[in-house]
Amino acid sequence: MAKKNTDEVRFAPTGIGDEKDGAVQKGVDLPSATRKKHKSLGLSEDDLKSMFKQMYLQRRFEERAMQQYQKGKFGGFLHLYIGQEAVSTGTVFALNDDDDIITAYRDHGWGICRGVTPKEGMAELFGKVTGCSKGKGGSMHFAKTENHFWGGYGIVGGHIPIGGGLGFANKYEQNGRIAACFFGDGAVDQGSLHETFNISKLWGLPVIYVVENNGYSMGTAAKRHTVEDIVDRAKGYGMKSAVVNGMDVFSVYETMKEVAEDVRENSEPWLLEIRTYRYRGHSMSDPQKYRTKEELETYQKNDPIERIKRYLLGNDILNEEEIEEIENKVEQVVLDAVEFADASDFPDEAELYDDMFVEDDPYFHN
Ligand SMILES: Cc1ncc(C[n+]2csc(CCOP(=O)(O)OP(=O)(O)O)c2C)c(N)n1
Ligand SMILES: [Mg+2]
To answer: For ligand 1, atom 8, which residue shows the shortest CA distance?
Structure first.
């Protein structure tokens, strides 16, 4: 006989995670960062300077993009990556330049790190023909396929099978390359992820699947929308896995380097949960009522750019003036990009259906 339930029926996920004072804990628990110094990670002083410059470029690019958006220079969605720059940077420095990278819609930092120039990036945001996707992709569809950066996808979890496909292609062609597929914590319960993990393990696809767990899927804390630790999804598929501190570029670099080597050698998939934090709202229209200023500030104390700056200063690799010089140069590059985007033309209406297929599809239009 069915149990008679006199209590209120609850579907809200209270009681999971580390519930404190009746509220589900928010944000992510950052694992400790690597203690290794740059030399033992195989990084030169020049590498460190480039990493710093790259992260600072991603940040200033987006801060200026936000300003241009607020000025009404372009519309639509704008999802900022600010706070997460160590993930893109540590990864790109660790992988080979011809390894494939694919990500979701929070893609500006990734594009810039993989060779979308600030001019091409800003023009793409402005919807201009000089943009990296000829102005027809916008914020969510940065891409630079000649650099093996496949974009920028808007459907949550939709690109995960494509990441698997990139791995499949590399294995099939025996070209020694691997693929890295990034997605948010909001994607981990999509069927597409589980189907892809299953076939990836079965077929030994050389893919590093990475969840950039920034604690939130839009306004919903990860601990409210998903059960258990995300990294444990790997167990169900017999995949190797690790949790990484994504606020520390050295930690991302170290793990990525080791994992890439293993994936390349043994041709099998991995799952990494890189814990990080986004400082800005989900997109520009987010009032951020789901978190407190104090919570945000806690993570900002671990800021990846400030961290590497402290390292550079503390190890006498750069002094204050040299840092300022790099920052000023980056600032100018970004300002030039804004000017370039503003002055560029919109795509011609006649190009609307161009570039939809690799080869012209005779059945689609004409
Ligand atoms: C299949 C699908 N469902 C819902 C949405 C609406 N949506 C856009 S972004 C988003 C949140 C995803 O969060 P997460 O994966 O954690 O990525 P983050 O924004 O934190 O980078 C949702 C639900 C969508 N784009 N696609
Ligand atoms: Mg998220």
So the answer is: 156
